Amino acid sequence: MNTPRTLIFIGPQASGKGTQAKLLAQKINGLYIGTGSMFRKIAKEDTEFGRYIKEVLDSGALVSDKDVEEMLRENLDSTSDEQRVIFDGVPRRLSQAEFLVNYMKSLGKDDIATFYIKLSREEAISRMSARRVCVACDAAHKIADPENIKDCIKCGGKLVQRADDMPEAIQKRLDIYYHDTLPVLDYLKEHSNFYEIDGTKSIEDVQNEINQTLGITG
What we know:
The chain is α/β, with parallel strands linked by helices. About 45% of the residues lie in helices and about 15% in strands. A hairpin with a 5-residue loop joins strand 5 and strand 6.
């Protein structure tokens, strides 16, 4: 099959959707749109908007649909007709899904594929509790021994636990996911080619399954 020009990765926190979206973007030279990392970058800015976004993210809540839509428009308006776009972290609400599908259609990218990376709540909690993120390159690492944290193996930066990976925020984020994001799946099943992937598999196995589904070799 020809690789669609719009690819959506969706799943619970720590399912690996961001990792897979980035790997695919590198493989097909696509534009990676990770709204989570984009808003985390804004949250580091010493501005009124930056402080507002930081407060939202640290609490485990979702950024407003309006802010998400503006972010997407800023990054997509100049894309070429043939540019493939890979989404990670959006849509998280039904209203966002409706906007995203209709907006991509308006850009002529109406060939849409969704990869739902499925993971249980228990496994998501386990992974988030053990996750540490590099303050320099934003790479995520699973730490087997949180008391013996080493530097980022990618860039040597300091590893920290994000505020939204703290126990209370984890529960809130997952509650929001099951309440707001799961209903999005039915919409995407109707408006895209929809594929369900077992998120408990290794990164390599999930990547291979995605590549095989898309007919990507090499």
